[in-house]
Amino acid sequence: MPTDQHEDSVEPTGDVEMSETQNTQETAPEATQEGEENENADNTELPFADSEIAEPRVTFANYLMSPIVTLLIGSGDQSILSAHQGLLTQSPYFKDICDSLVEDGSPRQIELPDYDIETVGSFLEYLYTGEYFPKKLPGQRVLETDPSVPSVDNSGDQLLKHARIYTLAEKFGVAGLKGLSSSKIHCVNSTAKGEIAYARYVYAYTSNDDTTIRAPVASFWATRSHTLRAEAEEEFKALCLEHPQFGYDVLTRVLDDKLKRERNDKMHPATSSGRKRARHSSGSRAD
Fold this sequence. Notes:
Strand content: 5-15%
Distance between the termini: 130 Å
Low-confidence stretches: 1-21, 272-281
Order of helices and strands: HHEEHHEHHHHHHH
Domain BTB: 69-136
Region (Disordered): 1-48, 261-287
Mean pLDDT: 83
Number of helices: 11
Structural class: mainly alpha
Strand order of the largest sheet: 2-1-3
Protein name: BTB domain-containing protein
Radius of gyration: 39 Å
């Protein structure tokens, strides 16, 4: 009958629509759940995952537990000093050497034929303590008293002590010791002959572009040569002939100072005075 046929034709369509709706409803939660799982998976990384992990601090005890290295100092009748490798390798120079030593249980030895025991001893003292004797007095340009040396350095030995440490620190790549020794040089009270011995060493064992130590030497003599030269005329002449760069550096600063004074006199003629300042023969670097 027409009615039966109509009902038969409608019912299947309704069943199909319900099926599709149910499938959609059932699929939607699954898709949502999968999306949440994926989102959670993306958020599983811990915060600061890309940050570097700080290395554990090396304690002083760690240094003292490192192998002992023997230093053979000088040539011929060598002196012997020992140091912990952990501290010694703070110097790039010694690190390269220690890295090349064979790990076969044999003694770890390094020869230093070009250095004396006092200079190397001060170097090791700095590695272990961060200072070396004599220390600078806090807030002053004065070194602590060393009863074994005179108060005025007439021979240049006190200046040379710090100069040798400076060149050693340069060779071994220890910037802190280099700066410390340079600052102590300016605390030494010396004479003209002591200054000449020091200047000769500086111009013999440092490079031409090392203005840190050479510039103060040249400036010192440029400002005091008119008085100090008279105290050591022959030594000053010999130094200029032996190291022409020294004479050139001093002369350059003398002429530069003269030019500055002339310019200052032209700019401020009223402030210039014809009265000369008293000249002193002191060679102190603390002036």
